[in-house]
Amino acid sequence: MSDSSGRLSKFMAQQNDGGDLDINPIFTRPGEATSYPADRFPSSESLPSTAYQVVHDQSMLDGNARLNLATFVGTWMDDEAVKLYTEALDKNMIDKDEYPATAAIEARCVTMMADLWNAPDPDTTIGTSTIGSSEAAMLGGLAMKRRWQHARKAAGKSTDKPNLVLSTGVQVCWEKFCNYWDVEPRFVPISYDHKVLDGYELEKYVDENTIGVVAIMGVTYTGMYEPVKQIAAKLDEIEKETGLDISIHVDGASGGFIAPFCQPDLEWDFRVERVVSINTSGHKYGLVYPGLGWVVWRSKDVMPDDLIFYVSYLGGDMPTLALNFSRPGAQVLLQYYLFLRLGFDGYQRVQQNCLDVAGYLAKEIAKLAPFELWNDGSDIPVFAWYLKEGASKNWTLYDLADRLRLKGWLVPAYPMPDNLDGLTVQRIVVRNGLSHDLADQLVAEIKTQVAFLDSLDGPMPREDSVTKQFTH
């Protein structure tokens, strides 16, 4: 083994055992140490180029983002956006006194999204940017809880047992919300007959302590829309029978930037009167680098004033509505850049292309004998499939995911929620950058790996003790 090969082997081994980190000899200088402690402060300084190379080399082990079909998060922006990003790296979103132009741009973005989502009066809505859609969702949940508390106190009733109704297909941020803010989650199970929360038997889950219902525009597990208008109609029936007036928060983390452009006639947003707030991810189909989220309320009167803090900070007095304080302002500028750069037509073309690629992939995968589609990618460009009963005794979708990973493709397999115990699905997320050509390559690779797995004369070895979970 050559000296350079030995160094590489030693370096790779040290990434796993927490030992010292070798420095490539090209960066050593007289008197410098030749290794860093991996998880302790070095005793002395190093040259910028040396520290850079160590971090650069370690991060080379990360995957290829364009072949990652597990994540919803955007991984590409054009050169002008990168230039703008570099120019704005030091902007602090909370410091509105130093960066008033950035603060004004944030407000414009909120108004533009309120208009996109058909708010009754976009110019008088309220909203904010956040680190991601998880923070935005929690702010929407907090506002619902606080409105419920105010109404209960005004009526002289207890506020001890708030609950939130949502489907078992929600993203893990909603479980965190309920845990962190002492709200009882009431999960409506999804099933083969009701693949999303659609209002079926909703009356069994709501009561006077229900702070609201969460409807998802793009279920994380499968990409399917939950029918907001249908859920609202069921809540209308419940109100007529019980007097309970229950609002809806729409988790539009993905669909908030798909439906307005590609399904404009679908009523899911503020056109539905029970919808009081919507969150979305700027860093998903908003097409911005991570991390950026948004939340917008129908009007200022549905945002409790006591959730807004007025602080004197860095020479200015300003309102703040967020869980975080200091946070990057650059992504807000990137969002506004894209709004101007693409406009409505540009977003429509980008998102429709993703839908077209998803539809093509779903159609090709449906042709393969072992598979059954759960959905076809016609809502957001995301779809899932599962193995037909008896399709194989020797392999599972986890094995197919592992085989594809060997070729660089990340196509996750994971169990569906509890009421679908035993059902494993595999899912593809089509983002901007997955071209038709790459889709053809993926289909070819799936066919190759399925053929390999079908050729086995015994079960694939696996670690049965490892629990397969997925919470993206």
From TrEMBL:
Q: What top-tier enzyme class does this entry carry?
A: lyase
What cofactor does this chain's UniProt record say it requires? pyridoxal 5'-phosphate
Entry annotated with the keyword Lyase: yes
Q: What is its EC number?
A: 4.1.1.15
Q: Write out the entry's keywords from A to Z.
A: Decarboxylase, Lyase, Pyridoxal phosphate
Q: Does the keyword Lyase apply?
A: yes
Q: Please report a single Pfam family linked to this protein.
A: Pyridoxal_deC
Record field: compositional bias (Polar residues)? 1-17
Q: What are the start and end residues of every segment in region (Disordered)?
A: 1-44
Which InterPro entries does the record cross-reference, listed alphabetically?
Glutamate_decarboxylase (IPR010107), PyrdxlP-dep_de-COase (IPR002129), PyrdxlP-dep_Trfase (IPR015424), PyrdxlP-dep_Trfase_major (IPR015421)
Q: Which SUPFAM superfamilies match?
A: PLP-dependent transferases (SSF53383)
Q: Report the catalytic activity.
A: L-glutamate + H(+) = 4-aminobutanoate + CO2
Q: Which family does it belong to?
A: Belongs to the group II decarboxylase family.
Name recorded for this polypeptide: Glutamate decarboxylase
**Classification lineage:** Bacteria, Bacillati, Actinomycetota, Actinomycetes, Mycobacteriales
